[in-house]
Write a structure and sequence with these properties.
It is built from no helices and 9 strands. The chain is mainly beta and 98 residues long.
C-alpha cells in the first residue's frame, strides 16, 4: 500500500509549525506504526485505512499530555489532513514520504 513506509510530517499548531516523523504499516484496514517528535517516539493507536483515507491517534506528553487525532488522505508520496488537539480544535498537517 502507498501509505506503508516513513513520512516527514509538518503540523501547524497554536505554537507554530512542528515537525514529526511517522512510520506506517497497513494490514487490511488496520494502520500501525510509530510517530516521533522532539526526541520522543510513541506507538500510534486506533489506526485505520480505507482507500486513500487514513486515521490514527497518538498520545504525547510534551509540551503537555494530549492525544492527537489525525484524519487525512494519501495521494502518492504526499499526505494532508487535519490534526485534532482535543479542546484546542483542529489544525492542518501535511506529510511527505521519505
Amino acid at each position: 500500500m502507498a501509505v506503508d513506509g516513513n513520512w516527514n510530517l509538518t503540523m501547524t499548531t497554536p505554537m507554530g509549525e512542528r515537525q514529526a516523523t511517522l512510520t506506517l504499516s497497513s494490514s487490511g484496514g488496520t494502520l500501525t506504526g510509530t510517530q516521533g517528535a522532539d526526541g520522543n517516539s510513541a506507538e500510534i493507536f486506533d489506526g485505520t485505512i480505507s482507500g486513500d483515507a487514513v486515521n490514527w491517534k497518538v498520545s504525547i506528553d510534551k509540551p503537555m499530555p494530549l492525544t492527537l487525532e489525525f484524519i487525512g488522505k494519501v495521494s502518492g508520496d504526499s499526505m494532508s489532513g487535519e490534526m485534532g488537539i482535543g479542546p484546542m480544535g483542529s489544525f492542518p498537517f501535511t506529510g511527505t514520504k521519505v
